[in-house]
Design brief:
This protein is of the alpha/beta class. It has helices at residues 14-30, 51-55, 63-75, 160-163, 178-196, 245-254, and strands spanning 2-7, 35-37, 78-80, 84-87, 93-100, 106-111, 117-119, 125-127, 139-143, 146-150, 169-171, 199-202, 219-222, 228-232, 237-242. The strands form 3 sheets. Strands 1, 2, 3, 4, 5, 6 and 15 form a 7-stranded mixed β-sheet that branches. The chain has a 6-stranded mixed β-sheet with strand order 9-10-11-12-13-14, covered by helices on one side.
């Protein structure tokens, strides 16, 4: 199965972001991708965290969800819709990742469990918990015979999430900051691939946004041996690679670490 990880530099304008997403999904499908993944916050990188509240949708209904459904159906692909804000409790939103099948039907949803907080001491500060509420349930689904685990960005720092899901393919749409991404992004993705003997697809935000935030980019696809198969360093673009089931089986046979677990 051919994978495509789309990298964007999203703006505070939803319509502009959807147009760029549609462009790159069309390009990925034209290049033969069967599973296409958008990054976290693909639909909005607002001027303030609170901007997410204004575009939050109800579960199963809303223009962003309809956009993703139509896009998957139009191109006949599996589409991971990065993340979009769903209305939560107490005036907050959930950062929610949706998957649609080639008929445009929703097949999986995951709400981000681990909420990012970072304070550098040099003026760079983030706290997703101010406007977001955490999800509670790990999620995996079957995609063409591959057990596919959903996660979002900061989840990468919590390996127990993936151990619980026993994945063949890990999805990690992200918007890593430039500071944390430069230090830890590739390291974390390759570690998750190696310890789970799994493919990893990680579409990311990648550049300087109109709100002043700079994201690291480097959207990656990694194989079960931890080898980087494709990468988009910065700016919009497309990383393409193929999941090879024989490669997955061969690595797990050569190094049967998953069978050796005791805890």
């Amino acid at each position: 199965m051919k994978l495509a990880a789309i990298q964007l530099v999203s703006t505070p304008r939803v319509d502009d972001n959807l147009a760029r997403a549609a462009h790159w999904v069309r390009e990925a499908a034209a290049q033969g991708a069967q599973f296409i993944a958008l990054p976290e916050y693909f639909c909005l990188m607002g001027q303030r965290d609170e901007d997410k509240l204004a575009i939050a949708e109800a579960e199963g209904s809303g223009p962003i969800q309809s956009f993703l459904q139509d896009l998957a159906r139009q191109h006949g692909v599996w589409l991971l819709g990065g993340t979009l804000p769903l209305r939560g409790e107490g005036g907050k939103v959930r950062n929610s990742s949706w998957v649609f099948d080639p008929q445009g039907q929703p097949v999986a949803r995951y709400d981000k469990i681990h909420l990012f907080s970072f304070h550098s001491g040099f003026g760079e500060s983030y706290d997703e918990g101010r406007v977001q509420e955490a999800g509670a349930h790990p999620t995996a689904f079957d995609c063409e015979g591959l057990r596919t685990a959903l996660s979002i960005c900061y989840d990468l720092r919590f390996p127990e999430l993936y151990r619980a899901l026993s994945p063949d393919l890990i999805c990690a749409p992200s918007a890593f900051t430039h500071t944390t991404g430069k230090a830890h992004w590739e390291l974390l993705l390759r570690a998750r691939a190696v310890e789970n003997l799994s493919y990893v697809i990680a579409p990311a935000q990648g550049g300087l946004h109109k709100n002043g935030r700079r994201t690291w980019g480097h959207s990656l696809i990694v194989d079960p041996w931890g080898e980087v198969l494709a990468c988009v360093p910065e700016g919009e673009g497309l990383a393409l690679a193929t999941v090879e089931r024989q490669r997955l089986a061969a690595v797990r046979k050569a190094l049967p670490a998953l069978q050796h677990r005791r805890l």
